[in-house]
Each structure stands twice: as C-alpha cells, then as structure tokens.
Amino acid sequence: PYGSYVRGTQKKVWINESDGVTTLLGQVWPGETVFPDFTNPECTSWWADECKLFHDTVPYDGLWIDMNEVSNFVQGSKRGCAENDLNYPPYTPRILDRLMYSKTVCLDAVQNWGKQYDVHNLYGYSMILSSRKAIEKVFPGKRSFLISRSTFAGSGKYTGHWLGDNAATWDHLRWAIPGMLEFNLFGIPYIGADICGFSENTTEELCRRWMQVGAFYPFSRNHN
C-alpha cells in the first residue's frame, strides 16, 4: 500500500465528488490520482507530516510544487461530470475545449471552502499556505525555499513562482522578460523562467544567450 494515500484517506483529506462524500478520481503522471483538499485543516496537517516523513528519508532544502491549478489528465473526473450549471454555466469563455473542467476537476466538486466553481483559482494558493506550514515543521526556525506554478493575489508573501512550461525558442526567451515584470506588478518579485526552455531541444547559441540573460532573473534555473 502507498502510505501517503492510506494516511490521507484515513484523515479524509481528498477533494470529493458533488455528493461531498465520494473521493474524486482523476489521472496525472502516476496514473489514477486523488487530489488533496488543501483548504481542509486536516489536509494541511497531513501534508506537513508527509513532508517531514519524506525529509527524514531524503533530506531536501525546499519545496517545488507543481500541477496545482489543479491539473488533471482526464476531463473533470474518471466518473464524468454531471450536467448542471456549475459544470456547464450559461456563459463559457473561449477556453480549452470550451469546457470549464477541461484538464482539471469537475466544477461541482466539493472542498472545505466550497464548490470547485467558487474556489478553483485558490487551489494553488491553498497549497502554498499548506506548504509554508510544512516548511515550518520540517525546518523550524530556518528560512527555506518554496516555489509554485499556480499562484493568486498575495502569494508573493509565501512563495516564488516560475512562468510554467515554456519552449526552447527565441520568442519564449523574449516573452519571459515582460512575463517576469508583470509578476512583479502582481506582488510576486521572486520570479523566473525555465532557462534554455522546458520543451523542445535547445541550440548552443540559444542556450548560451538565455544563460546570459537568465543570470539576471531573480529565480535563475536552467530547466531544459
């Protein structure tokens, strides 16, 4: 059995289907997946304990939290999403697949703070707050490192951010500069982009130039 899952299930820390009881099942890199409800205080406690257990096994210096939009490789849930005004609201913006739950969880899924429809944009923020609590437990009295892909207003007090999955192109090198300046306006000054690009193969000249400009990124990391 997978200990983290067993302990989380015992504490009832997962996002639930619309009935508020049945655990919502999705799929991410490992396969079938459940999603922690970081708005639940019990989940924060579980997350801090799990981070401490992992640090006891593999010592680390900080946390890099990813896929926390929340991201899902199936549409909403492996059981499907109900046809209601939350999953299919009267107005749907021109977004991916024209579905509000595309690549994420159903909008009528239940968290401690409310329905996913109302708290979706706070998922990354709630994970940031829980991760900060975990860092305080793992590194008491010490300054540590936290970086998150998903952020919200006020996140800069607790975490840094990177601009997400970019590509090894000259355009993405250029676009990273205004992207980082914008996040300073959003109150998140500790910001960077994947130097040399995340996807696709870089070239020697592109990577060399990107390393040169990347030396001035507040968060400077080659991630090609």
The residue-averaged pLDDT reads 97
Content-based structural category: alpha/beta
- Spell out the helices and strands N to C: HEEHEEEHHEEHEEHE
Largest sheet: 4 strands, parallel
Rg on CA atoms, Å: 19 Å
Give the CATH level 1 class of the largest domain. Answer: Alpha Beta
Strand order of the largest sheet: 3-6-7-8
Write down the overall geometry.
Answer: globular
Helix content: 25-40%
Going by CATH, the architecture of the largest domain would be Alpha-Beta Barrel
**DSSP strand count:** 10
* Continuous helix count: 6
| CATH fold-level topology of the largest domain | TIM Barrel
Determine the N-to-C terminus distance: 34 Å
CATH superfamily of the largest domain: Glycosidases
Q: How much strand content do the residues show? A: 5-15%
Low-confidence stretches: none
Q: In the residues, how many domains can be counted?
A: 2
Describe, in plain words, how this protein is organized in 3D:
InterPro entries: GH (IPR017853), Glyco_hydro_31_AS (IPR030458), Glyco_hydro_31_CS (IPR030459), Glyco_hydro_31_TIM (IPR000322). One of its GO terms (molecular function) is alpha-1,4-glucosidase activity. Belongs to the glycosyl hydrolase 31 family. It comes from Chaetorhynchus papuensis (pygmy drongo). With 224 residues, the chain is an alpha/beta fold. 33% of the residues lie in helices and 12% in strands. It has two domains: 159 residues, Alpha-Beta Barrel (TIM Barrel); 61 residues. The chain is built from six helices and ten strands; from the N terminus they run αββαβββααββαββαβ. The protein has a four-stranded parallel beta sheet with strand order 3-6-7-8, with helices on one face. Strand 7, helix 5 and strand 8 form a beta-alpha-beta unit. Helix 1 packs antiparallel against helix 2 and helix 2 packs across helix 4. The longest helix is centred in the N-terminal third of the chain and has 17 residues.
